[in-house]
Amino acid sequence: MARKSESPQDGKTESYLTKKVFLFLLLMTDKTAIKATSSIVPPHLNKGDKIAITCPAKKLPHPMEDAIALLQSWGLEVVLGETVEASYHQFAGDDELRAKDMQKFIDDDSIKAIIAARGGYGTIRMIDKVDFSRFAEQPKWLVGFSDITILHAHLYSNYNTQSIHGQMPVNIPDASAKSLETLRKALFGEEISYHFNSHDNNRSGDAEGVLIGGNLSLLTAVSGSVSDMDYSGKILFIEDVGEYLYSVDRMIRTLDRAGKLKDLAGLIVGGFTEIKDNDIPFGQTIAEIIIDVVAAYNYPVCFDFPAGHIPDNHSIILGRKLSLSVNNEHVNIKYL
Fold first, then answer.
1. How far is CA 128 from the centre of its chain?
2. Which of 18, 92, 182, 315 would be a feasible disulfide site paired with 83, CB 3.0-4.6 Å?
């Protein structure tokens, strides 16, 4: 079969397309490099700014007077979503309502931060119904933890944007003063650092990297999804509540088998509270489970970081680069 001859116009077309492909690849490479070294910081709050409260997951067990009063004492105007009083089985309204509530506050440029009223379960049911286009153009702070880990992961992996893992309105009546002060500092852009005594199981070392993570169960749940993150070179934070020891072991090993732990820069372990055991004991503590899994890797590990399902749940800024220094006596963490 005869081969069709190439005309001068065909050659020009190929040359043009080659240049287009080259420029596209160059642009994508440049974006990848930027994403690897920096992240977007939403504008910090000022007195008089509006902060919205919404419930993307479980419904509230009681009103939030304490939380509203606290936020107002910081000089913020509090706007409540429809989901705050909504109820649909165990959820704060059905999936559509919870997504609509989040969408409204994302699209409203007068809202400078969104705080999830509580965790529980349900964010994974509504997140794919939310259009984050306006968030990409006008990022704002998202605050929460536990089930809100899905939103933190999604905003970092897709929009390279920082967010705050911290106390939520449902927790504020029992929250420590120190934890609430770290939340205020994070929202208003004041410096935060952490210094505490070293745990017996800590592994010494120094590291720098972007902080990612949150609730271990939710990190496992989003693995392989559009909300999953690149763990390489990152400092990972994990916490959980109400799990069985064997379940924690399985989740840690699942992340490891997915290749997510081998290239970390460091590991920070927060509160693992209300942990349960079987009638036949599992035989390892939380610290022993984790150390056993990461024994083959050479990065610092610190336990008992004050964050998670605890009253002293200090705020941490996910997506921001920090330095982690662990020795036999102390742990020092500061943002860079």
1. 17
2. 92
Looking up tokens 């306006």, which residue turns up? 134
Nearest to 282 by CA among 254, 250, 240: 250
DSSP conformation letters of 52-79 = EEE-SSBPPSS--HHHHHHHHHTTPEEE
Architecture of 193-311+318-335 per CATH? 3-Layer(bba) Sandwich (3.50)
Task: Grade residue 33 by pLDDT with cuts at 50, 70 and 90.
Answer: very low
pLDDT digits (tens, 9 = 90+) for 197-241: 999 999 999 999 999 999 999 999 999 999 999 999 999 999 999
Q: Are 209 and 321 in contact (CB under 8 A)?
A: yes
Domain borders along the chain are 50-188, 193-311+318-335
DSSP string, 174-219: G--HHHHHHHHHHHHT---EEEEEPPTT-B-EEEEEEEEEEEHHHH
What is the identity of the amino acid at 85? Answer: E
Quote the CA–CA distance of 92 and 10 in Å, as a whole number: 60
What digits encode the pLDDT tens for the residues 250-283? Answer: 999 999 999 999 999 999 999 999 999 999 999 9
